[in-house]
Amino acid sequence: MTAQGKMVTLDVTDLAFDGKSVAHLDGKVVFLKGGLPGETVEAEIVRSKPRYDQGVVRRIIKKSELRIDARCSHFEHCGGCTWQDLKYEQQLSYKQKQVADCLERLGGFDTVEVKEIMGVDDPFWYRNKMEFSFHVAEDESMCLGLHERGHFDRIFDLEKCYLQSELSNEIVAWVRQFVTSHNIPAYDVKTHDGYMRFLVIRQGVRTDQTMVNLVTNLGAFPSSEMLVEHMTGAFPQITTIIHNQTGKLSNVAVGEIEDVLYGPGYIEEKLFDCRFRIRANSFFQTNSLQAERLYGVAFDMLQPEPTDRVLDLYCGAGTIGILLADRVDRVVGVELVEDAVTAARENAALNGIENISFHQGHVRDYLKSQRNGEEKFSALIIDPPRAGLHPKAVKRIIEMQPEKLLYISCNPSTFARDAKSFGQAGYDLPAVQPVDMFPHTMHIELVGRFFRN
Ligand SMILES: C[S@@+](CC[C@H](N)C(=O)[O-])C[C@H]1O[C@@H](n2cnc3c(N)ncnc32)[C@H](O)[C@@H]1O
Questions:
Q1: What is the DSSP letter of 87?
Q2: pLDDT at 171
Q3: Contacts of 122 (CB under 8 A, 6+ apart)
Q4: For ligand 1, is residue 337 a contact (CB within 6 Å)?
Q5: Which domains can be identified in the chain, with CATH numbers?
Q6: Nearest atom (ligand 1) to Cα of 316
Q7: Considering only CA atoms, which residue is closest to atom 11 of ligand 1?
């Protein structure tokens, strides 16, 4: 008989990969929204499937020793953080365990060493970029903030977020006040009327430069000169202000028409000895300090040599290749997004790097085009999106037989799937190194080096 709709008492035993907690009911797994290991909870079963049930914790009967008070007053309903109420050391150990579970369950590996996950020094204030949405509430009032957990179309008015910086919180409050007092209407995602869509704040944590990017519906920004004068008067730390217009219905904070209202139109960030120019729409790792650790580990594993020819697949704005270029013979980066490739070329020039080139297009197509290519690569670096590698890309990489194969992943389950294919083709994976880029969230980054045997 289905348990759907029932209220049940459950003991939470584990945390699942997607931020849910795990319990068992009559021998069946239950994935729960809410709850921490060691807790007894009263939960409602909201969905019953043949192999598992889904539930929502309605009341905690016995609290876990791992539970702490979340610092943020918005935590209960904000879609940003999942585990602010779990001690940071425990977040790390669950992430580490999830990597080991994925490798074993999905990759069939039982001998890969999962090195101790690299945590951050301060699990707050780590983001260099945040997107805030404007919204028309049910009572027609305007709010500016973040998404409610589980609701793509509901935004709450943000008072304070602990993930970016105090300056970012102050800018949010200031922009909300400016827009309200000048009667500039917020965009309504349902009717597509209105003007203000997003406020994006980017900060160079090593350079103290700050970008404010206002993303709106189509049309010139009303009183933009006054906005710039007042905003830079209130916040001299702001180094550039951008206006992006978009007429697209999709709810993404990217514009088709960009006007620089103030400053150079970009900020810079430093990683190791290189400078990177970050524009409003270009990709950059969101946690600068931890990105250095991730890349540091990746380069230690890769062991680059002056004769290496490196293929940097899914290269984004070219960060990895640019940081590596002076230690190898040559780097080719491949990236789908045109803006990212433009940024990559600009950043290579900015750092005086000449032995790097970038190719814009699908990795799969590039690999196909190289089938009879002249270029032989001794080292491949792969850093794909969460979906991991396309089977044809895996096949082609195996055919290329690179001596050094380094895989950076933001999804241990697709990493385990792809690693299994490399393993079957004769590559050994002695160890992986998880790195925590996003404390309080369920996201896990890891890096592994495959050795051809
Ligand atoms: C996780 S990011 C890696 C960025 C970069 N390696 C870095 O460290 O900054 C993945 C990148 O892959 C790009 N991408 C996604 N699908 C792609 C495809 N099929 N072919 C080429 N690039 C793709 C995305 O635009 C994104 O820049």
A1: -
A2: 98
A3: none
A4: yes
A5: 7-62 (2.40.50.140), 96-121+285-452 (3.40.50.150), 129-271 (2.40.50.1070)
A6: 27
A7: 314
At 146-169, the pLDDT tens digits run 999 888 788 999 999 999 999 999
H or E element, residue 395: helix 391-400
Rounded Cα–Cα distance for residues 240 and 257 (Å) = 17
- Please state the atom number of ligand 1 nearest to the C-alpha of residue 315: 6
CA distance 335 to 384: 10
Bridge partners of residue 408, in order along the sequence: 447
Q: Is 344 in the pocket of ligand 1 (CB under 6 A)?
A: no
Span from the CA of 308 to the centroid of ligand 1 (angstroms): 22
340 lines ligand 1 (CB under 6 A): yes
Taking the CB of residue 153, how many other CB atoms lie within 10 A of it?
A: 12
Shortest-distance Cα residue to atom 26 of ligand 1:
316
* Cα-based distances in Å from 389 to 209, 373, 385, 436: 35, 21, 8, 22
Amino acid at 204: G
- Evaluate: CB of 322 within 6 angstroms of ligand 1: no
**What residue's CA is closest to ligand 1, atom 18?**
362
What residues pair up with 406 in beta bridges, in sequence order? 381, 449
From the CA of 172, how far away is ligand 1's center (Å)? 29
The DSSP output letter for 389 is -
Residue 77 backbone class (left: φ over 0; alpha: ψ -120 to 50; beta: rest):
alpha
d(CA 78, CA 71) in angstroms, rounded, equals 13
Q: What are phi and psi of 336, to 5 degrees?
A: -80, -40
Residues with a known catalytic role = 410
**The ligand 1 atom nearest the CA atom of 410:** 1
Cβ(336) – ligand 1 distance below 6 Å:
yes
In tens, the pLDDT along 303-357 reads: 999 999 999 999 999 999 999 999 999 999 999 998 889 999 999 999 999 999 9
